[in-house]
Design a protein that fits this description.
Blueprint (H helix, E strand, L loop, with lengths): L31 H4 L3 E5 L11 H8 L5 E5 L5 E2 L2 E2 L13 E4 L6 H11 L3 E4 L10 H14 L2 E3 L5 E4 L4 E4 L14 E5 L2 H13 L4 E6 L8 H9 L6 E6 L5 H14 L3 E5 L13 H4 L3 H11 L2 E3 L3 H12 L9 E5 L2 H13 L9 H10 L10 E2 L1 H4 L3 H13 L5 E5 L6 H15 L3 E4 L8 H9 L4 E2 L2 H21 L20 E3 L1 H10 L7 E5 L15 E6 L12 E5 L2 H18 L7 E6 L4 E10 L3 E8 L4 H4 L2 E5 L4 H10 L3 H4 L10 H17 L4 E11 L6 E3 L2 E5 L2
Parallel strand pairs: 1-2, 1-5, 5-6, 6-7, 10-11, 10-12, 12-13, 13-14, 15-16, 15-17, 17-18, 18-19
Antiparallel strand pairs: 3-4, 8-9, 8-11, 20-30, 21-24, 22-23, 22-24, 25-26, 25-28, 26-27, 28-29, 28-30
Length: 724
């Protein structure tokens, strides 16, 4: 029996043979014997193949598993001709996995027995624990796992399928199908039955799987444990994960980095994204961030390809099966249908792919092949005339692939009776091109079986619609771009670590102390003067030029505008005193218990108004949010985020992602604004959050004014929430 996926360090550009860079390994368990067990004990075994305890006995004895199978049932002497054991402790050794098909109440005791018997892994098919609110039984199971040392998959899972070694250790439709196609894909699913239906559909579309693991409730082993192990398996080129949620976002991000080191994509289908987690947030920044946005940020930075449908899974898997990545996102489109070309061009732009102008030499060569009326700009429409000329069509494809402006090609398949001949020619061209070639079929796949068989044998992915071809191309280009970013050095410090004057307990800091923390990290703050409440009337001069802003100075009023505690454009000293008393009175009406230190008098400033800040998420860690500011910031939610820390280059990427970036470049005749100063400030903010993640829960800069080019940025207001 094969040894499955022992931890290895081998991978290259989707070939998995060259040595990978060193990586700081986590303490993830070696799951080799879980996936390729020498023997399996089926606890709760049944003779009836329709029962949950009978299905795995039937599958393990009938479908080619070469290890030993030990039925465990105290009420039977034999099952399917195999000796039946009364308890786990009587099972011969070595036995690597116990498959539990028992009433939930019996599971904790059997886990303890597995530990005493030396069985390292258990797969718990039983349901009825925390997922139904039975916290007491869940706690018993957790205690049994801890005391026994047994590593557990489940409970409430459907099992583990290893097609390479014919290990059918589970129940359900997937375990009754020994003819499932094998292939270099592994799936980890937090949903049992649906995960296997996805595998069945993908298999029907030509995608083979070596492993399918249902992780269930993840009381012990998690989907992240399994993914980390699968990343090291040389026979796995692509991992698919159906994910509802994880408890360790930092580890998810580490696995994303590891996937890039190995050039091994993780295709993730994240569900349960529409509900918003409850958050008692003080800052605008926290209110602007939904839980799903953090998953998206992790997927964006790591070696993940996010999908949203089973067809996406099929298309992405087919694209990566070609084992070739593009150097960039520049697509050349070749077709004999103008309409198809326009559609492909539209879809490419929608998915972030560029259709560049072709090189002059390419244009010259194409004009030698195509009729004079053909449209040879990108997309290239060779016209119906070349739809009858196999050699001319393939020569045009070769010319397009040789263009230095093109990173990958989408070719509309050759129509007509000569399509198989065309496919053979395309296979030869694609084999030497060094660039990915994707085919959008011009006819029905089932009527083009001979043609698609040629393409499949050459690892040329083909797709039934233009849109699906583009989704696949975008996945390749996106993963390639991530590889390049990952090869950049770790972000250089934008600022040295600074000591901050933070309170010893959980507390919301007022604006003045919050801005002092920003200033310590080199983030410019507005000029201001603090005036005690009892010194307002005695004020005789001001070191700041009028007009000014007057605000209450209170740590208990995080959003001063809502409290009516801000006055803008105060023109002189007399008005300042009046407005100062007004904002104090408004604060007392808004919150009678608020601590009031006095007022802050600030210079008036202007520029493009943004909001910036950060949150230290308990699952994912500290991150920075940047967005369009103003009173409608929470309404329009024009934001982007990155995990801290990062450098100015990443900050520039963030700036380019918000719609408000158009204002920074000089909108409607306005002069450009200081984007570089903004990038530096955002990078410094990331280091502030990273350095003090143990104390800072939330941080808000609202507004952050971006002045004209050369004039910098300035934080006009800030709020910091400290934790214990």
């Amino acid at each position: 029996m094969g040894e499955g996926c022992r931890a290895v360090q081998g991978a290259n550009r989707l070939n998995r043979h060259a040595d990978s860079p060193p990586h700081a390994r986590s303490a993830a368990p070696d799951l080799t014997r879980l996936l390729t067990p020498r023997a399996i004990a089926v606890v709760g075994a049944s003779e009836d193949p329709r029962r949950i305890g009978g299905q795995p006995v039937h599958a393990l004895t009938e479908y080619g598993y070469r290890g030993a199978v030990y039925p465990v049932n105290p009420n039977r002497a034999q099952i399917k001709g195999l000796k039946c054991y009364p308890e786990v402790g009587a099972v011969p050794q070595p036995c690597d996995v116990a498959l539990l098909a028992l009433p939930a109440q019996e599971v904790p005791d059997v886990i303890e027995q597995c530990g005493r018997a030396g069985i390292a892994f258990a797969v718990v098919l039983s349901a009825g624990f925390g997922e139904v609110g039975n916290r007491e039984l869940q706690a018993r199971l957790e205690a049994a796992i801890k005391s026994s040392g047994v590593r557990v998959v489940g409970p409430n899972c459907v099992g583990i399928l290893n097609l390479r070694d014919h290990v059918f250790s589970g129940f359900g439709a997937g375990f009754r199908n020994p003819g499932l196609r094998r292939g270099p894909v592994a799936m980890v699913s937090q949903s049992g039955g649906f995960g296997y239906s996805v595998v069945a559909f993908a298999e029907h579309e030509g995608i083979g799987f070596n492993y399918m693991i249902s992780s269930g409730n993840e009381v012990d082993l998690t989907s992240l444990d399994i993914i980390e192990h699968l990343l090291q398996c040389p026979e796995i080129e692509l991992i698919v994960c159906y994910m509802e949620g994880i408890r360790d976002g930092r580890r998810l991000r580490r696995l994303g980095a590891r996937a890039l080191e190995l050039s091994k994509p993780i295709v993730v289908w994240k569900v349960g994204n529409t509900g918003r987690g409850a958050r008692a947030a003080m800052s605008h920044t926290a209110n602007l961030t939904a839980n799903y946005a953090l998953y998206q940020a992790a997927f964006r930075e790591g070696g993940f390809v996010e999908i949203g449908d089973v067809y996406d899974l099929v298309d992405v898997a087919l694209a990566f099966r070609g084992r070739r990545l593009p150097a960039g996102n520049r697509v050349g489109v070749l077709t004999t249908s103008g309409g198809a070309g326009v559609l492909l061009a539209d879809r490419c732009e929608q998915h972030g792919l560029e259709l560049p102008a072709l090189d002059t030499a390419t244009d010259v060569e194409l004009r030698k092949l195509a009729p004079g009326f053909a449209a040879l700009a990108n997309p290239v429409d060779l016209s119906a005339q070349l739809a009858q000329n196999v050699d001319g069509f393939n020569q045009a494809t070769r010319v397009l692939l040789e263009d230095p402006n093109i990173d990958l090609a989408i070719v509309r398949s050759f129509p007509g009776v000569a399509a198989e001949e065309w496919a053979h020619g395309l296979s030869r061209i694609a084999g030497t091109a060094g660039k990915p070639v994707l085919v959008s079929l011009s006819g029905l796949a089932h009527k083009s079986a001979a043609t698609t068989a040629v393409l499949e044998s050459a690892n040329i992915p083909y797709f039934p619609t233009p849109g699906r071809a583009v989704i696949a191309a975008a996945a390749l280009a996106g993963f390639s771009a991530k590889l390049k970013r990952h090869q950049r050095q770790a972000p250089e410090r934008a600022v040295e670590r600074q000591t901050l004057d933070l309170p010893g307990a959980a507390q919301t800091l007022g604006e003045r102390k919050s801005k002092a923390c920003l200033a310590a990290y080199g983030i410019p703050v507005v000029n201001e003067v603090a005036i005690a409440a009892d010194a307002i009337d005695a004020l005789s001069s001001l070191a700041i030029s009028f007009p000014v802003v007057v605000k209450v100075d209170s740590p208990d009023v995080p959003h001063k505008t809502e409290a009516g505690a801000v006055r803008l454009g105060v023109p002189n000293l007399d008005d300042l005193k009046v407005k100062a008393h007004e904002v104090i009175a408004a604060t007392r009406r808004f919150n009678p218990d608020a601590r009031i230190d006095g007022v802050l008098v600030q210079e008036m400033t202007q520029g493009v108004e943004l909001i910036a800040g950060g949150v230290n998420d308990p699952v994912f860690g500290p991150y920075v949010v940047l967005g369009t500011g103003g009173i409608f910031s929470e309404l329009i939610r024009d934001t982007t985020l990155r995990f801290a820390p990062f450098d100015a280059a990443t900050a520039r990427e963030m700036i380019g992602e918000i719609k408000g970036a158009r204002l920074l470049h000089g909108y409607r005749g306005d002069a450009p604004h200081d984007i570089e100063a903004l990038a530096q400030a955002i990078a410094r903010l990331s280091w502030l959050l990273f350095d003090h993640a143990d104390r800072i829960a939330e941080l808000d800069i609202n507004p952050l004014f971006v002045r004209h080019a050369g004039a910098g940025v300035v934080a006009a207001d800030s709020l910091m929430v400290c934790r214990t």
